[in-house]
Every structure is written in structure tokens, then in C-alpha cells.
Amino acid sequence: MRIHFLGTGSASVTAERDNTSILVEAGANLILLDCGGNPAGKILRLGYDPCALDAIFLTHLHIDHCYGLPALLFHLFLQKRMRPLPVFFPEEEMDLLNQQLLSHGIGEDVRTYQLEKSAVGIVQETMIWETEHAAVYSGIARHSRATRAYRIIEKRTGRRMVFSGDTHPVNEMIALSRNVDVLIHEATYLESHAALATEYGHSTARQAGQIAENARAASLALVHFECPPGSSIQQYRNEAASEFRGTIYTPDDMTGIVL
Ligand SMILES: [Zn+2]
Ligand SMILES: [Zn+2]
Fold this sequence. Notes:
alpha/beta; binds zinc ion; globular; 25% helix; 14 strands
């Protein structure tokens, strides 16, 4: 399993960090988790073909997690993609997703391929997509919009990863991430801004470390950094390490890990 961090920033982008979006190669499957920025351009830069995407999973429809979707879908049309493309998203957001796509001229049928809109209910550890190479499970998260977390299993190797999306720390994330090879958990804030994390449905790096420790995850990758002025990424790492004894990653944009 290969995980590529297309972006690692929060809604407030910086010169170094675009909005959080992750490409996962699981066996022969190529999966996109969230869709900020310009995913097609970044996927091409990594040497993959965007037309090879097998499925897209949106954690939620805050703009930093979904605004790149219409452009990606249009790119696939221009490249004459033929096979259907499933896009998973929280079921509460069907209207918003439809509005977003229609406002960009993207209909049910993107003329060359079928867009399979797949609404995900509020379900915990339920398999929502499966191929001969991989399986994806939905998990419950808690944020200021309807949101879902996802667990991906690569069948050949048994490697497992979880992506939390944006969330306040929740026990369901511990269950979803039990013994995973890597938990990719948002760490929007440092403990100095813990009140903001609670107010906006986000987590601190320390809270992400607690979730990973309680889940007995082998490793923790922090993403969705707010990076307020004067802070350093080392502070995020140190806070997580105060709770979590496994390997900690604080990835830069366009870097990756191999499990
Ligand atoms: Zn976000
Ligand atoms: Zn959000």
C-alpha cells in the first residue's frame, strides 16, 4: 500500500501546504480521499493517470475537501474516461453535492462516463466498497458538517489505513483504527488552541496521539495543520508523541509513505 499526501493543510492554505487530500494505491486500485486543490495535476505529477482512479471518497463537503471535484471530473471527461466512477459522500449532503456539480456544469452523466453517486449513511465499520484488491469501510466522526471516516484494506498484504477527515476526537475512531498500520488523523490545532478544536469540531495533535494510542495503531500521520504564525511542525509532532508511542509522520505536501 502506498499513500501519497497531495495536500496536508487545513482550510487556510499556506505557501507550503495545500488543502488536505490523499491518494492511496491499494493493490491495483487507485483511491482518492477528499478532493481539495487540483487533484488531477497532482496525480499526474506523481506519475499516475487520473483516469486510473477507481473511486473517490469525500469525508465531508466543507469547501477545502471537495472544491477540486468538478475540475477533476471534467478532466476525466476531456481524457475520455469510459468506465463508471463511484464517488462516496455523507448521505446528508446529496443536495449540496448536486448543487456543486451542477453549478459547474457536471451532470449525472459526464458525457463519456457514468458518475456513480454513492451516499454513505451514519454507519460504523460497514463495508461500502469492495474489489478483488481492496475494501473500504465507513466510520463515524464528529465535525461541524456531516462527515465520515474511511478505513481501507489492501487484500493482498492485509495492510490497513484509516483517514479521519475533520473530526473532534471520538471513540468510534478508536474502534475503526484498531491495530491499523497507519491512522491518518487530522491535527488542525495545538493544545494552546484546544478550545477552538472543541468549538469547530477539530482535534489537537495531542488528541490525535491519544486516539492512535488507544487504537494501538502502528503509526500515526498527522494532517490538516492550521500552522498558526510562530508555530512549528515539530510542536505538532511533540504533542502527539506525548501520548502515542508508535511511529509519527508529519508529512509535507506531495510526500508519501509505503506500508
Ligand atoms: Zn478541513
Ligand atoms: Zn471541515
